[in-house]
Design the sequence.
């Protein structure tokens, strides 16, 4: 296995980095490190009091760990931390179905249960 393979995310993340309607795909640790300083994710770094936000610091830590200790578990931890940051920054692109569930305050499981209960 090549070292670069250890830096690839199992599933890329789609994020909005700028105000344009297009999304950017983050496929590996290097993409994640670049995204920390780009667009909405970069602007999310500091809170109103000027302190670094916890999600941003956690993503940086996880991405650095994955970069310098390239193991698949570190890479997936980095992806998870980056996803949490992108969600907090309002930059995460989610499938349409997930957005609809979140707008309703439901998970896919609770929506399915509601449908079954209504049919009974």
Sequence:
């Amino acid at each position: 296995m090549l070292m670069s393979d250890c830096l690839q995310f199992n599933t890329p993340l789609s994020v909005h980095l700028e105000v344009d309607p297009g999304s950017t795909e983050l496929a590996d640790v290097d993409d994640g490190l670049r995204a920390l300083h780009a667009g909405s994710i970069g602007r999310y770094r500091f809170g109103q009091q000027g302190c670094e936000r916890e999600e941003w610091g956690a993503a940086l830590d996880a991405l650095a760990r994955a970069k310098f200790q390239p193991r698949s578990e570190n890479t997936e931890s980095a992806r998870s931390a980056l996803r949490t940051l992108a969600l907090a920054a309002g930059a995460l692109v989610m499938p349409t179905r997930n957005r609809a569930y979140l707008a309703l305050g439901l998970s896919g499981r609770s929506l399915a249960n509601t449908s079954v209960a209504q049919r009974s």
Summary: The beta strands are 8-15, 24-28. The chain has one domain: 3-94. Helices lie at 3-6, 29-35, 39-43, 54-68, 72-88, 96-104, 108-119.
